[in-house]
């Protein structure tokens, strides 16, 4: 996590090949698989964080909640 404006979304956009870097290069191991959930999920009735937490049934059954924020 980082402060607003520090480049978190830009880094993710680079990793997802949505944008190109102005210079340099970026590589990661070929056996890595990247996955993400968009912050906004207009097609879902719940916030993205709840959608992700719902994917971990054991955590949710233990009373797992999204962090306050």
UniProtKB/TrEMBL annotation:
It comes from the Bacteria. Keywords: ATP-binding, Nucleotide-binding. Residues 1-31 form the ABC transporter domain. InterPro entries: ABC_transporter-like_ATP-bd, P-loop_NTPase. Transmembrane segments: none annotated. Pfam families: ABC_tran. GO terms for molecular function: ATP binding; ATP hydrolysis activity. This is Glutathione-regulated potassium-efflux system ATP-binding protein.
